[in-house]
Specification:
The chain contains twelve helices and eight strands. With about 300 residues, it is of the alpha/beta class.
Length: about 300
Amino acid sequence: MRVIALMNQKGGVGKTTTSANLGAALAEAGQRVCMIDMDPQAHLSINYGIEPESVEKSLYTMLVEEGSFLEAMQRLDKRIALVPSSIDLVAAEVELVNVPGRETLLRNRIAAADHDFDYILLDCPPSLGLLTVNALAAATDVIIPMQAHFLALQGVGKLLETVQLVSQQINPQLRVAGIVLTMFDAQTRLSTEVVRDLQQFIEQTAGTNLPWSDAVLFKTRIRRNIKLAESPSFGQTIFQYEPSSNGAQDYRALAREVINLFRRRGEKQQAPAPAAEPSGETVAPEIASDPDVQPQGD
């Protein structure tokens, strides 16, 4: 199972649109998906036709009132479930300030539940507060939706610093899976330049011990599409609202990329190491390393 945090501290970059429609596209591809609305604005919940004011059990119930993951979850169809948000979540960071282990509450609730999802998608708020830290502590991977703008590119640095901090102190398994470009216009020179800068950045960090050393820039670009902007007002994903639109095509393509990426990485992790071929030479025993030199962790 993959727990993916979709995050960007800058608002209006298509993060919730990507959470909602990537989740739907994964389900359409046969995956079992649960989405968790981490944002007090509850836009992901609204996108799926759930009014925050009418919700009895929500993420707030799970984090603050110690409710269970399955109690807060709403089953939308046989392959999609959602843990909705509510306005009460605004107060969660204040109410949890003195709670021991407050950074790992979400992780513990998910781990304690008897569920069988292939993917859990966490739609993070546009900030780097306690709710986002909880998402990063629970996640196996991070996907960063962003626009191909210069200022958006600048903001990625701060976001990666947060990922690295959480990786070092709370969740050493956390990795950045990749960056997906949203509201993309291939005709502009700026878009081309941002793509080039991102590709160079990813190439420069490959092979390092940083949490984003094996990140990818997804080949799928989510094009500007009016249907994507309209569908949330009807409480529908793009696949319900206009399944033949460019937006639906793009999110289907992104879902295929995500599935194939994690499938390749899973196969790579499970593959046995190749046996060493005998050289016919006597190999000396390994010399103990200097005790003053500490090995670097991943």
